[in-house]
Specification:
Rossmann fold, 11 helices, alpha/beta, single chain, two-stranded antiparallel sheet, globular
């Protein structure tokens, strides 16, 4: 574990603050995933004593490629194992939890809803219940999703909108979200909830997602494949902006009375799937590769995007990267990775 670095740093939005994460005991689930690996790297760099829960060793995860795994404690297991979660929180005297572990692929949720419910719902109540029983935690950040809102007439989604998801993945995230709210309202567990749009960035190994799948197709000189009709509207947020959002919320939760609240993080500039694909093609100078539109997507909402005014107003959050800048960094990552 790391000790004795600087005592003062500049916050990511220019404010001068104590080195918040130095020697804090932090537990992160889902640390081999896209968000988890980038967040782990950032927390280790800022001096946290990081404990990560790993179900499967994903050798090509950024967690291992960057060497972050060598600078943290890794515990093998699953979020569905309540007694393991409780042991970790106790044994490592955890102060902050980032609960990211989930089954995140919509298609898999439609095919295998029970495993999705077990991971996304039971895994969340295990984190919350263990935190309640231990009672010492200072903040718990739960990863929800824009999918929790379900289909709504009024867009963009705002935090006070009802959670009305009805497809399996949407329901799983809405349940996890409501569980977090219940544990705050009933037991005052210091939880905050993050609702983001679609993450993208280097290190996403789920190539059935539109950004990494399109980039890989282009690098292989193939037409990019679009499962839907290309007209679905979504929010996309670059992974480094998402990491900043999670860290800022965890810091703010220990300094301000925002426990129990949910925050949307979004660029506020939704695009259609085909617009996103065409942007990638232009950035890669391959507009000659016309997208293959399958129009096969089922059990998905056609229009979803978020309003992040609350996060901007109350937390001072703002993204550092435009969609174009984030895609350029992502393309470069995959050029190196897939070469």
């Amino acid at each position: 574990m790391r000790h004795g670095a600087q005592t003062v740093r500049h916050g990511r939005y220019g404010d001068v603050m104590e080195n918040f994460w130095e020697n804090k005991n932090v537990f992160i689930t889902g640390c081999t995933g896209l968000l988890g690996s980038w967040l782990s790297e950032k927390l280790v760099a800022e001096g946290a004593n990081l404990i990560g829960l790993v179900r499967d060793k994903v050798s090509k995860s950024n967690l291992y490629l960057t060497g972050t795994s060598e600078k943290m404690v890794l515990v093998r297991g699953q979020v569905e194992d309540y007694f393991l979660i409780e042991r970790i929180l106790n044994e490592y005297e955890v102060e902050v939890v980032f609960h990211l572990a989930a089954q995140t692929i919509v298609g898999i949720s439609n095919v295998s809803p029970l495993s999705t419910f077990k991971s996304n719902i039971e895994g969340t109540w295990n984190i919350l219940e263990a935190s309640r029983r231990i009672g010492r935690l200072r903040s718990i950040i739960i990863a929800s999703s824009d999918k929790a809102y379900g289909e709504q007439k009024n867009l963009p989604y705002k935090e006070n909108a009802p959670l009305t998801g009805y497809f399996p993945y949407d329901v799983s995230k809405a349940c996890a979200d409501l569980l977090a709210q219940a544990y705050f309202k009933t037991y005052r567990v210091p939880v905050c909830i993050v609702r983001c749009g679609n993450f993208y960035g280097g290190g996403d190994l789920n190539f059935n997602r539109i950004v990494p799948g399109t980039i890989r197709d282009v690098l292989n000189n193939k037409r990019p494949v679009v499962r839907s009709d290309g007209k679905f509207v979504r929010d996309y947020i670059y992974i480094e902006d998402a990491v900043d959002a999670y860290i800022l919320l965890a810091e703010s939760a220990q300094k301000r009375d925002i426990a129990g609240e949910a925050f949307n993080f979004s660029y506020g500039k939704p695009v259609t799937v085909i617009q996103l694909v065409n942007t990638i093609l232009r950035l890669m100078n391959r507009t000659d590769l016309k997208p293959l539109i399958l129009n096969q997507a089922k059990n998905e909402i056609k229009r979803q995007y978020l309003c992040a005014d609350k996060a901007r107003r109350e937390l001072g959050w703002k993204p550092r990267y435009s969609l174009k800048e984030g895609l350029e960094k992502t393309i470069e990552w995959y050029r190196n990775f897939l070469s």
